[in-house]
Amino acid sequence: MRTEPQGAPFVPARLTAARKRCALTTVALSVESGISTKSLSEYENGKKEPSPETVRRLARALEVSADYFARPPLDDIPPDAVSFRARSKMPRRYEDMALAIASHAVELRLWIDQHYETPPVDVPTLHKYSGVFEAAKAASVVRARWGLGSAPLGNMIHLLELHGVAVFSTTAHKTDVLDAFSFRADGQPYVLLCTTKSPERGRFDAAHELGHLVLHGEETKARGPEAEREADAFASEFLMPEADVRAQMRMNPRLDQIFKTKHRWGVAAIALSYRLHDLGLLSDWLYHTTCVDLSRMGYRSGEPNGKIERESSKLLGQVMSDLLTTPGGFGGLCRDLDVQPSGVNDLIFNLAPLVVRGEGQRSVPIRPELHVVDGGTKPLFSQRHLISSGLGGFKNRL
Question: Does residue 108 come out as left (phi exceeding 0), alpha (psi in the -120 to 50 range) or beta?
Answer without folding.
Answer: alpha
